[in-house]
Request: fold
Amino acid sequence: MPPRKGADLTTKRSLHEGVNLHSREIRKQLGPFAFLHHPEKRARFMQDVSHLIANVPFTLFVSAVRKLEHKERCGAEAASPYDLALEFTMERVRHFLGAEKGTNLPVVAEARGKNEDMTLGNVFFRILSAGTRGVSREEFQGLDCSLVFRSKRDNIAGVQVGDLCAYPCARHVLDATKANPAFEVVKAHL
Reply:
């Protein structure tokens, strides 16, 4: 049904006709992925998603912090594991861009909430302006980085690819000895 004349089309929820590829809904067979309860359909769908991930060109940067071990090792002085993971990721991104002679990096982060987004934004800009233990501020200042937050509902391909890759990577970090076919597809992009 078309919008009425003069209707305001700007909403917090994006307008699109597609389905978001959301890892949790796929794994739990929820919402638009309820059809995955059928084994044949699930097998075909997972094969198609694996093919998509295997063939889309992207580079994946993954940082994981085992929160409990980090807290035990560092005690009250422990940095936020989320801040630390962002630092590790940005260090690796900087080294990657340096090797590729690149400087431009638009960063799209999944929106989590006003406070969480503000905290992540502050850490992001602190890293770029002050550097880290592994990368100097001068090296970061050579980057042209912007940070935007987008909701899963916005149907952003990169956010969906990141979401689909996160769970297999987390499972691999937690126990690399367990079978993890999705990680086998993802690891080519690391």
